Amino acid sequence: TVLRDGARTGTAEVAEVDQGWLVARMIGRGFEAHHARGRELGEVALSLRGLSAEPAFRDVSFDVRRGEIVGMAGLIGAGRTEVAQTVFGLRRRTAGRTVLFGREVRFRGPRAAVRAGLAYLSEDRKAFGLLPNRPVRENVTISSLGRLTRWGILCPRRERRVVAATIAEFDIRSPGMETPIRRLSGGNQQKVLLARALAGRPKVLIFDEPTRGVDIGAKREIYRLIEALAGGGAAVVVISSEMEEVLRLSDKVVVLRDGRVAAELPRGQATEDSIMRAATLDS
User: Fold this and answer.
1) How big is the chain by its Cα radius of gyration, in Å?
2) Which of 129, 159, 217, 272 is 20 to 30 A from 140 via CA?
3) Mapping DSSP to helix (H, G, I), strand (E, B) and coil, where does residue 209 land?
C-alpha cells in the first residue's frame, strides 16, 4: 500500500509491483529511465590539463563543452570531490592548468571563481551550504545581496520579491520565506542551494552529489534542472556515487581511481560494468 499526502494511492501484491508503478504512486507521476538527447555541444568551456593537488589526486585531464554533462564516477576516496574543490579555488593545486573558455585561470578562492562564471554545489550542504538557523529568505539571497541593495542598504521589498519568485520557480515547499531552512526537507533545502548557485547565471556548474538525501520527487526535479541547464548551453559536471544517476545524466563519464583518471567513456561505452571495471581494476 502506498500513501501520498495522507491518502492511499495504490495497493498491490509485491509480485505485481515494479519501480515504475511504485514511483508513479509515490510522487504522482512517472520517473523516466533516461532523458532525451539531442543537445548540440559547443566550445570547450572547462579544460583540465595535468591538474594535481597531491596527495589527493594527480595528473587529471579532461574537457567539458558547452551543452555537455560530464559525469565523474569512482569509489569513495578516488579524488572526485578534491578535483572539484581545486577547480573552484577551495584547494591549492600542486601542478597542472585549469583553462576556462580558452584562458588559463588560477582562482585564489570561491569568490573569484564565481566572478569568472563558475558555480559549485558541495556534497555536504549542511556544512558548506546552508545557514541552518536562518530563514529561507536569507539562504536564497545571501550570495546576491549586491543586486538587492541601493547605496549599500538592502531593499527589503526587492528582496522579498526575488525570494517569492525563486520559491515559485524552483517549487520550494516551505511554510513561508521566514521559516528556518533547517525545518525544510532535504530536497527543498537542496533546491534553495541550487537557486542560490544559479543566481549569478554561471556558465560552468559543478554538482557534487546533487541528489544525496533527497526524496525521489525532488530528485526528478533536480535531474530536469540539470538537463535544462545543459540544454541552455551551460557546461555541467556531475559527481555522483549513484551509478544510475551517472548513466542517466552523462554525455560522457570520467572515472577516477586512486587519484588518477582511469577511463573517459563516451555515452555509448558507459555502462555499469565498464565504469566499475575502470574504478576498481588496473588497466
Assistant:
1) 20
2) 217
3) coil
Q: How far is CA 161 from CA 155, 158, 216, 255, in A?
A: 10, 5, 29, 43
Could you report the per-residue pLDDT of 164-223, keeping only the tens digit for each? Answer: 999 999 999 999 999 999 999 988 999 999 988 888 789 999 999 999 988 888 899 999
Are the C-beta atoms of residues 139 and 130 closer than 8 Å to each other? yes
25 and 57 part of one domain: no
Cell triple for residue 106?
588560477
Pairing state of beta strands 69-73 and 235-239?
A: parallel
pLDDT at 282: 62
pLDDT one-digit tens code per residue, 3-57: 764 667 778 877 777 766 666 666 554 545 455 456 789 999 999 999 999 999 9
Q: Which domain holds residue 169?
A: 133-197
In a domain, residue 229? The reply is: yes
- Give the mean model confidence (pLDDT) for residues 85-106: 95
Q: What predicted TM-score, i.e. pTM, was given to this entire model?
A: 0.82
- Pair (184, 206) in one structural domain: no
- 165, 197, 229 - which closes a domain: 197
Q: How far apart are CA 209 and CA 222, in angstroms?
A: 11
CA–CA distance, 105 with 102 (Å, rounded to integer): 9
What's the grid cell of residue 10? 495504490
Question: Which of 82, 44, 80, 84 is closest to 65 using CA atoms?
Answer: 44
Q: Which of 197, 223, 248 is the last residue of a domain?
A: 197
| Identity at 69, one-letter amino acid code | I
In a domain, 242, yes or no: yes
